[in-house]
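Per-record layout

source: Leekyejoonella antrihumi
name: OmpR/PhoB-type domain-containing protein
length: 981
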Amino acid sequence: MAEAQPASAAGGGARYVGDFRFDRTTRRLWRNGDTVLLRPKAAEVLALLIDRAGEVIAKQDLLDTVWPSGYVGDAVLSVCINELRHAFDDDAHDARFIATVHRRGYRLVADVSSAPPERGRPAPLLVGRRRELAVLHRWWKDALDGQRQTGFVVAEAGTGKTALVDAFVDELRLDDPLPLVGRGQCVDLVGPGEPYLPALQAMANLWRGPRTAAVTEVLQRSAASWLLQLPELFTDTELAALRQRVGRASTPRMLREFAVAMEQVSALRPLLLVLEDLHDADRATVELLSFLARRREPARLLVLTTFRPADVIAREHPVHRVVQDLRARGLAGQLALELLSAGDVSAYLSARFAPRVPTPRLIAGVHERTEGHALFMVALCEHLLRARLLVEDPDAGGGVDTAERLTSLGVPSEVRLMLEQQIDALEEADRTMLEAASAAGMEFAADVVSSALADGPGEMAVVQVEEQCGRLARPGSLLRFLGAVEWPDGTAAARYRFTHQMYREILYERLGPARRAAVHRAIGTRLTAVHGARAAQVAGELALHFERGRDYPSALRWTVAAATTAAGRSAYPEAHAHAHRGLDLLDRMDDPAVRSQLELALRRSEVVSAAATWGWRRPEARDACLRLQQLADAQGDVPGLVAALLGLYNAALMEGDESSMRGCLNRIDGVVQESDDDAAALVADLLRIRADSRSGRYASMWDRAQRMLDTCERVDHADLTAIVGDEMEVAAHLYGGLALWQLGFADQARAHADAALDRAHSQGVPAGLARALWFAAVIQLLCGDAARVRRLAGQLVAVCSRHDLEIWRAGAAVLDGWAIGVLGDPETGLERLRQGAARWTGLAGIGESLHQRLAAELCLATGDVAGGLAATRSGLDAIGRTRTVQSEPELWRLRGELLRLDGAERAAEAEEALSRALELASTRQIRGLQLRAATSLARFRQARGQVRVARELLAGVYETFTEGHDTHDLVNARAVLDQLT
């Protein structure tokens, strides 16, 4: 029996699905004149989907219509659907043509028309933004008067942020004096981005763009660290000289250099810096933006940025906090782009459809359908023109309208489908070229795209790519011309940018898996060649291309380089992300020896990131250290082994695992003996110092600190920080200062704290600076300088906020709470202290005895005897569990003072507690706490009438001090002695 003809066979004529043409009579499919082969049954399925476009067609309906003569299983239908998707280059998970409706059937989601697409005239760049332009010009006027300005243009995707900025820049180019413009683009890559990328782009714009010799001189003189990150600007000889002059580029130095350079450039000519898409910015760029806005120096500078607020909030991006803080302080303005009004839509449609005039009904319909969303409006207008859906309306005086309401025309609600229609209208050669360009990124160079097309179906020379891109880079189109780029190898090519991220995303999705891999490999190879010896500067980009190109050995090699580069810029989140991405790729490596070497480098970066953020309580941090230890042992890598053992020690410290801590100490001692390695010796001394501190052996602690300082003077230890996460000279000063205070030398302790801070600031390592600020504040706390503690705590909060160093932020709250209490508000201070202590304990699991000691001190100030006694009890219990005894004498002293306050009936308990505090401090030779205990006990005995005994006790301790007589404890002791005399 002959098969019945499906209902869709009735009636002839062609139907257009995107840039495909389907003949309903012959069941043949074409794309741009080329036949697309389909088997008969697949063509029948397509005919039914086209006739019922937009509807969900049940699987059983398709089976009954296309295979009416007998039962056929779902598998046969699935084969046909897959064949059609292959023909359309469609993706079942992100369908542009045929969508699967779960448990129901299939639906054709692409637009279907009976006429080929129609090309319209270019639309105006901007409508309805005069008020917004006026705001930007007001910011610019203030900048011209020397009042630096920071402005945020915020709106969701496709609402015209870039178009507004472009129009503003175009208008400024008519101003006198002519401004300098530097633009940078934040890019959302699959892997972590390059630190400061948009700022580096802006710097390169200023260097390459129209400029005077004075501008070049300013950049060379004041922004050397930044120019070093742009090796493509110099010859090898110039770069070597620059590198020798710059030395190590720390974070504070880079921030300072950029700010000073921009200020000096703006003194020559007014300067506009544009940083686009901050929602994709790396943390380093956000920190730079905040630094620029907070400076008080006059500058004819406007920093104009754009971002999508929904993306910022959803990702918990640090730019959200920075924007809120700058606006609250009056240091920045914000301009939120509203959706277009009906009048704006009318202006756009009148220009777009000219000489035809849109009817009021059409204007209202487009405004209602798009809700004034600029990109959606543009896409919808393109759809109306291509599908020839505009008809004359005789009732509207000859104006054009649609025959049916827009909502009934099957126009997709997602912007994606609208943009796909615009892309489908391009010539096949243009699409092929742009698909390859989409793999290069939002911005691309013509020579890179030419390399990506080599040996493929759309092979093009560089000149041909430039010609096609030049034709497409017209107002309202997909591309924007950015000028020429000169690569480090001397070659030059035109550079372009997609006008919207969504164009790039849609084009990239059209690359099939095999072609996508080939394109990325070609791009990676080309970028490696043009950058040559300087390719490490773009290691993150190269790693991404080779990974997507399935060249995993190359991807891993560049991932390691990217992690190293990020760590060198103190960009720890980026370094950590690169390390984890590399570890995910290790299974792709076949050579075990090479795999082990690469894993060693990646694990080391992972451990250093944990050290920088003090993330030792995370199980994955301990696992990383164990794996690094195993790899370093196998490969004889002493620095890697030292880093692993230090990390394991810190992880054991967080858990109170004394046995494991001793094991790590002994193993590092063994490494020192076997290798005679100075770096290992420094780490061994550092861990022994920590052990001495926890056990109250302060004389030994000071001896080791001195030895560390001597070693740091003798040997080059610059690279040790990147290996273990601690700057050894800073650590030696800090621990030495703590030991000196305990031994009774407060002036020397403060001098070492200041030296540590100076060194930490000069090194510019954020985690190291945070650690130094915390320890220095503790030394000032011991000296009783509450005002200085508050200032240091404030600086610590600023560092932690910029770099997400939560452990030290919690520590800052503890210190600040204590200072607030001592300065006269103990209730508020105690609440802040306890909040910080709770966060610290949750993150680190240590420090309870110190926190309880400080809490007990504030409870004593408020007269809260019960709370203070509970705090001392908890602190002493913690000492019993952890055997961390630094605070034990002070806890007993505070307990005695609280018991005195509780009434005469507890005097015996108070005296016993005070005597025990003095005994512990004296036995352990902790002279700082010995003086406190002696002062408290002398007061107690004075109150009991034992004046001579009290005076002899206190004088015997006080007279041993030779310095620090301005500190709180010595001033207090002197006052008590005067009373006793």
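summary: The mean pLDDT is 84. The first helix runs from residue 40 to 51.
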